[in-house]
């Protein structure tokens, strides 16, 4: 043990050393880690409070509470110019903005994260879990993790602990992780090497329909040398990762119609057309037996990868066998295709399907409707509305009359097969940042400096973010630096963040904030 | 106006006349009707109380409350030997039995109805309706009927009024209608022409798994010249109806598997197989594009109709155009096929289908499972378990490994396409009573005596009842005499009974109770 006097002396020396440290000084890593260890319990308490505020983009009241909570966190960390960037339209979740300007810094980085989350169906969460009652577990539930309580403020966490709750990884971990990274630097008196701006969106999971407007209104404020997008999971191998781009995304909701009222399946079964069967046939016809989308022109427009991107792709370690084992399947949807090949193609995926009732609620009826929600992922070259149109044209080619409202009696009497197709208005295109930019190399070095293992440089994420809007409106260069564990159940029930990922992520962000330009 | 003395005198004469009336006396119809008009408000009050008791077969506690309520109704109507016929297995809904023996009667009729109802999903019911809060409406909701309150006991009902609630038509209307018919005869002092026994089942909608055992244990008690099955809707034309048989029924639940945990559809979309697509393809392959089941041997085993049955079938008025208009479709599932042709064939119908979430809850995921519930209707010649097996064999023929449990990690690593198929254990075969039996003619005459319009004699109902069990265990002759309106939403949300149908049904039952043998 060190005596009190010695400890005091040690602290003073440390503080002096920290005070003298220059921007971009090497090895802030160990300092950030030590500070994290001291603060982690307090940080987790605050993070839990943050996760307790429901964050569905359409829930205005709670969205505002989230925004206020973040503003409060910003102010406590001496951020300046803290404000809500509002859409011109009323009722839109605001962007929470704050900045930490560094005298003399010649660079400006904006860190993006989002505080809203995907819709939740609490009934689907594991027993004992609720999306907005964050819970600490000793390990992943699928690894037999048990609910535990947070140690008191002198205690410490274990790397495998996880926090369950909506937004735990996607993407309140981004918001909190960034602010904690800055706090760690502040505590260590390490000055960031660039002006730091935070831009926390509140409707990313709703498709960012007002992002473009907000960017446009704040062009001056949002000038930067680079945008660091803090969202998504790291590589399945656990290695840290940078992604240069994202797939685009577009949605469609398809509804087919049976009888106007639910019918007894005995009295009318197989005379009155069953919408669940109609929908099954319609969906089944969208892919061939090898998982290829059989919609005309679906793979047209795809802009091929550059030589450098292809090379980068080849360097990405394959997680295919690991993931097949982990996810419990043997054969890819398109047999023989690798995950990397798959995410570099446009996709068509059924998110959900519903007709009548199943299981215990199942009754002997012909349902009145059958509904499917579909998401289309897009790669460079695809236009999201054109991609939607291809699906609609396909449905028409199968003899359906496509409408965008519930059919009237007259429509039903027309003798035509009716399908309602609702286009999601929240789509956007893919985006990819040029691999050869100096920014890419600098960020890569910074992230690599925090990890012994080689980091993964991915030409594109499979997931989507509205990055093409940043490029279009601001000419911004975006780089995605995710931190979450790959098995975080992002978008689904039992969303979680593994604590080691959270802590490593804070180190990653601190490293980017102190890039040696 | 008649003076009080004159009215008294009139009543005495009437009572004397009624007292002297013989079994099977003609024209009880107008008396039953007059009594009904006096009692209808009170009857509806009791009926509402009855409907307020939830009646899902698996809900033991409430099922017992229903049984007790019926016993009380029986006792109030001087029934004797009132008892619960229990299964030897514990926890099974009992049959409620009671009898009204007529001195000197040489015939015995047993009236069957069931007091349990189909599962409910309250969320699907119309605004303001709840399955177990019966509500009186001025007309069908789809005809813009409004919620109204019951008149006081001197008031009267209107023919188009409807009562909404689970069991309102299927089949508490049968239970109450029978007891009210007897009460009307008792009040009018018209003696039934046969010993009357009531047999009210409590798990018909769960597939009557214990009915056979209960019949077997009570063979002596249940000896009868005929069973009148009081369930189902009258003909779509509104005409009264007798059906000689029913289709059989069998169920299957099909579950296909995606990843062990829900996945972000961007990061894994179209690499990890999507169970909703797999299920769609599987279901789509079960029927050809003309609605014919394409499962090998599905239409084998069918025993053709007799010449007399074919003739009866030809005499059934076609409701096809009316129903197409009413239900909002133009083309039968198998184009050109009539409803009567359809219900004389085995069928395959999807009752429900579910994967992930749809609508507002839809999220960008690959779901973990996709489930479909299927019911198979059977005609004479089909065996319910053999019919299930044909579907299972079909699934196997598509390259799936069929299991009857959730797959283990080892199953998933086998590289086989996995499907869980759960056979419903509640299936049973079709049944049809011989058209030439004297009983059929007597019941036909009795029902015809209550209606100006020619009644409909249907060789088989499209729906199912476990009537083959009665024949097998008791050698019973069964005849189905339904009373509900055809648009009663039986088995689904917004189930209802139209009051004119209820009142007409009571007259029908009273007529059968007073058949002139």
Automatic annotation (TrEMBL), chains A, B:
Origin: domain of life: Bacteria
A Gene Ontology BP annotation from the UniProt entry: proteolysis
Keywords: Hydrolase, Metal-binding, Protease
InterPro entries per the UniProt record, alphabetical: Cyt/Met_Dipeptidase, Peptidase_M20, Peptidase_M20_dimer
Segment forming the signal sequence: none
One of the record's GO molecular function terms: peptidase activity
Boundaries of every Peptidase M20 dimerisation domain copy: 245-398
Protein name: Putative M20 family peptidase
SUPFAM superfamilies referenced in this protein's UniProt entry, alphabetically: Zn-dependent exopeptidases (SSF53187)
Origin species: Flavihumibacter petaseus NBRC 106054
Entry keyword Metal-binding: yes
């Amino acid at each position: 043990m060190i005596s009190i006097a010695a400890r005091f002396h040690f602290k003073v020396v440390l503080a002096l050393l920290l005070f003298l440290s220059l921007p971009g000084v090497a090895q802030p890593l160990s300092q950030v880690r030590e500070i994290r260890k001291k603060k982690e319990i307090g940080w987790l308490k605050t993070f839990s409070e943050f996760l307790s505020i429901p964050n569905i983009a359409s829930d205005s009241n709670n969205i505002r509470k989230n925004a206020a909570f973040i503003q409060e966190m910003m102010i406590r960390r001496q951020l300046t110019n803290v404000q809500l960037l509002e859409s011109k339209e009323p009722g839109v979740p605001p962007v929470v903005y704050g900045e930490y300007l560094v005298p003399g810094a010649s660079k400006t980085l904006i860190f993006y994260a989002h505080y809203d989350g995907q819709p939740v169906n609490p009934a689907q969460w594991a027993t004992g879990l609720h999306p907005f009652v964050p819970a600490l577990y000793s390990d992943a539930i699928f690894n037999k993790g048990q609910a535990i309580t947070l140690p008191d403020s002198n205690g410490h966490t274990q790397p495998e602990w996880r926090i369950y709750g909506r937004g735990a990884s996607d993407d309140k971990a981004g918001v909190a992780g960034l602010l904690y990274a800055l706090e760690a630097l502040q505590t260590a008196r390490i000055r960031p090497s660039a002006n730091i701006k935070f831009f926390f969106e509140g409707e990313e999971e709703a498709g960012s329909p007002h992002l473009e407007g907000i960017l446009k209104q704040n062009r001056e404020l949002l000038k930067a040398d680079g945008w660091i997008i803090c969202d998504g999971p790291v590589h399945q191998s656990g290695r840290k990762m940078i992604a240069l781009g994202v797939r685009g995304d577009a949605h469609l909701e398809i509804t087919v119609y049976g009888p106007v009222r639910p019918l007894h399946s005995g009295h009318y079964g197989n005379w009155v057309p069953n919408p669940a069967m109609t929908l099954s046939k319609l969906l089944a016809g969208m892919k061939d037996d090898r998982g290829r989308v059989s919609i005309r022109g679906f793979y047209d427009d795809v802009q091929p990868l550059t030589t450098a991107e292809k090379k980068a792709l080849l360097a990405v370690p394959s997680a295919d066998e690991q993931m097949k084992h982990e996810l419990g399947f043997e054969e890819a949807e398109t047999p023989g295709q690798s995950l990397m090949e798959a995410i570099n193609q446009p996709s068509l995926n059924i998110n959900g399907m519903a007709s009548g009732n199943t299981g215990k609620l199942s009754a002997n009826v012909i349902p009145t409707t059958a509904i499917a929600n579909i998401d289309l992922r897009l790669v460079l070259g695809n236009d999201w509305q054109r991609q939607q149109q291809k699906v609609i044209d396909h449905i028409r080619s199968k003899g359906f009359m496509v409408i965008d409202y519930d059919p009237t009696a007259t429509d039903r009497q027309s003798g035509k097969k009716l399908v309602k197709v609702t286009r999601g208005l929240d789509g956007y295109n893919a985006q990819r940042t040029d691999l050869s930019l100096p920014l890419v190399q600098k960020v890569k070095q910074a992230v690599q400096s925090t990890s012994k293992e080689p980091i993964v440089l991915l030409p594109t994420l499979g997931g989507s973010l509205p990055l093409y809007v940043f490029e279009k409106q601001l000419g911004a260069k975006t780089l995605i630096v995710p931190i979450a564990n790959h098995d975080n159940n992002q978008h689904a029930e039992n969303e979680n963040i593994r604590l080691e990922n959270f802590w490593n992520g804070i180190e990653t962000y601190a490293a980017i904030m102190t890039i040696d330009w």
